[in-house]
Amino acid sequence: MAAALSMQPRIISTFMGDRFLFSTTTQSLHQLFSYNLGRQRVSMQTSRTLSGLTNFLFNRRNLDEKKRKRLRPGKVSPYRPVPDHITRPPYVNSRQPPGIASGPEVHDEKGIECMRASGRLAAQVLEYAGTLVKPGVTTDEIDQAVHQMIIDNGAYPSPLGYGGFPKSVCTSVNECICHGIPDSRPLEDGDIINIDVTVYLNGYHGDTSTTFFCGDVDDEARNLVKVTKECLDKAISVCAPGVEYRKIGKTIHDHADKYRYGVVQQFVGHGVGRVFHADPVVLHYRNTDGGRMMLNQTFTIEPMLTIGSINPVMWNDDWTVVTQDGSLSAQFEHTILITQDGAEILTQC
Ligand SMILES: [Co+2]
């Protein structure tokens, strides 16, 4: 699950321009985005009227997008209970809004073993969830299956109750960039869907996501998904102790540029371990941030690439984030451990 950049005021002022300069640490993500959304709506209307000819002349991609039906909210099913014997993360039922905790997640041998276990379980759940992706299956049914498998393994589904998130997994279809809430919408032939699984096992979170194909997916979408996966793989391959985090952003951005895909900036990778979202903030785009990777550290890398606009618009549910122009977005995520000679992917079966 991606952390939201707007939780980090330092970075907001550096990278997001004056729109966010008013923000303070006490302001919630939702407030920030609501404000942003108002501006986005205005700019969307203006650009719609002005850009018809421009699109026709210069941007066939956007024209193609218009054939696809825009994603609409479905019905969200009631809360799914978690058995009492399963340990909840501290943010569940807490009034404190979860942010990004300060301090990196660096582990001893025992901690590394726990991270391997939660990473493996997250990967197994994700693999199983992927087998359910078929036309006609609802994202709520995927949530049900994921929820059951996680609790059957003695773990807690980390998104459930995180900052009020109502479900156990994020399901982000087509133009949904991230944080889609599972609902009654049946998957359609040709959809792409990112399923983002995080489990909390023995006090440690493991976090991973993949974009799956539903039925017969066109080449344009397939290529976006392929390149997004390549971006993640390439980024992981440059990781090692002492390497600057910003090398991740450069690697991803350079590869995306080759295909003229956009890199979403407002949602970031993050330290993960005992805490769901911790330092460092892992930017997926070129940046000049400082900070270097440490031995035995765990964090996620989770690039989101788009065919068209990289601007996010948030739905009224305060979670679902879609591209402003309705063009496709894809994402892949792994939790990795920094080792002596590089990085170990923890979220593998
Ligand atoms: Co994540």
Automatic annotation (TrEMBL):
This protein's UniProt keywords: Aminopeptidase, Hydrolase, Metal-binding, Protease, Transit peptide
Start and end residues of each stretch annotated as Disordered: 67-107
Residues that, per the record, bind a divalent metal cation 2: D207, H270, E302, E333
CDD domains documented for this protein: MetAP1
EC numbers on record: 3.4.11.18
BP term (GO), one: proteolysis
Source superkingdom: Eukaryota
Record text on cofactor binding: Binds 2 divalent metal cations per subunit. Has a high-affinity and a low affinity metal-binding site. The true nature of the physiological cofactor is under debate. The enzyme is active with cobalt, zinc, manganese or divalent iron ions. Most likely, methionine aminopeptidases function as mononuclear Fe(2+)-metalloproteases under physiological conditions, and the catalytically relevant metal-binding site has been assigned to the histidine-containing high-affinity site.
Protein residues bound to a divalent metal cation 1: D196, D207, E333
Binding, substrate: H179, H277
Keyword Transit peptide applies: yes
Similarity comment: family membership: Belongs to the peptidase M24A family. Methionine aminopeptidase type 1 subfamily.
Name of the protein in its database record: Methionine aminopeptidase
